[in-house]
Amino acid sequence: MSLLTLENVTMKFGGLTAVKDVTLRVEEGEIFGLIGPNGAGKTTIFNMITGHYKPTDGRILFRENEITALQPDKITRTGIARTFQNIRLFRDLTVLENVMVSQHHTIASNGKAVSWFFKSVTRLGYSEKEREMRNKALELLSVLGLEMLANEKSSALSYGSQRLLEIARAMATGATLLLLDEPAAGMNASETAGLVDTIRRIRDDFGLTVLLIEHDMKLVMGLCERIMVLDHGRTISEGDPAFVQKDVRVIEAYLGREWVTVGK
Ligand SMILES: Nc1ncnc2c1ncn2[C@@H]1O[C@H](COP(=O)(O)OP(=O)(O)OP(=O)(O)O)[C@@H](O)[C@H]1O
Fold it and tell me: Are 49 and 242 in contact (CB under 8 A)?
């Protein structure tokens, strides 16, 4: 049984077909990469999985239950969480508070969630439950190597640390499937190397499944166990990294000839 299945999914925006007849199966526990040129339809696929877009055609299943076009908060509650290409943190909250908001409210993507969180904290004080959540949040921060920054405002973090905090927030929802949209964007080489280790570790230690979009091909080829390549909304290749990077269609559409000679 696949953890996540997209069956012949199509997404049209007026006259533009952003995703055309894509079938995708992600198995439990794997690290799966979705790659392709700009505008290929990768983020649109994430938006359909998370309920932000309703597919024009096709079905999406999570643990064999159909989730096509459920509301995003319902989809989060089934165990799917994501990070965004453009970082979306609560900039005025601390690192720890950012994680706790995600624990409190599975959507945690709007101001309502923040005010709900603070009302509950001030009304109840730090109850036993709050303390427990705080400890769990600190534990997650330590997994991501951010525990020393727990009391900093999230806006004060380096770009790379903000991306890690986004992952911590996604994990804090209790998700079993993480969708990471360009997690290495803006990271330097050593941060990217650390990210590869971190993603492997959270998959292994937390039993998570990871579906990621990334343009850093060294990261993708070194980390992902299977890869699907999209071009103009269609699947042009799928397989393990060794297969995909030798596929002429992928070289022509995306990797370029220089990848074959110097990319690796
Ligand atoms: N809400 C929308 N309305 C209209 N067109 C859209 C919408 N969302 C995406 N598109 C279009 O769908 C196509 C696929 O976009 P998408 O963002 O999924 O590509 P991508 O593969 O994620 O690209 P990138 O690597 O640049 O992030 C593009 O032509 C984009 O302009």
Answer: no
Q: Where are the domains of the chain?
A: 1-79+175-263, 93-174
Of the candidates 183, 196, 18, 166, the residue with the CA atom closest to the CA atom of residue 81: 166
Please give the span between the terminal C-alpha atoms of the chain, in angstroms, as a whole number: 34
Question: pTM for this structure?
Answer: 0.90
Using the predicted structure, report yes or no on whether residue 55 has a pLDDT greater than 60: yes
37 CA closest ligand 1 atom index: 25
d(CA 263, CA 259): 4
* ipTM, 2 dp: 0.97
Q: Which residues line ligand 1 (CB under 6 A)?
A: 13, 16, 18, 36, 38-44, 85
Q: How far is the CA of 14 from the centre of ligand 1 (A)?
A: 13
For residue 167, give the 3-state DSSP assignment: helix
Place of tokens 């409190």: 104
Tens-digit pLDDT profile for residues 170-217: 999 999 999 999 999 988 999 999 999 999 999 999 999 999 999 999
Contact predicate 36/216, CB 8 Å: no
Cα 182 to ligand 1 centre (Å): 14
Extract the runs of DSSP E, i.e. beta strands, from 84-243.
177-181, 209-213, 226-231, 234-239
Ligand 1 atom closest to Cα of 13?
4
Question: Which CATH superfamily includes the segment(s) 1-79+175-263?
Answer: P-loop containing nucleotide triphosphate hydrolases (3.40.50.300)
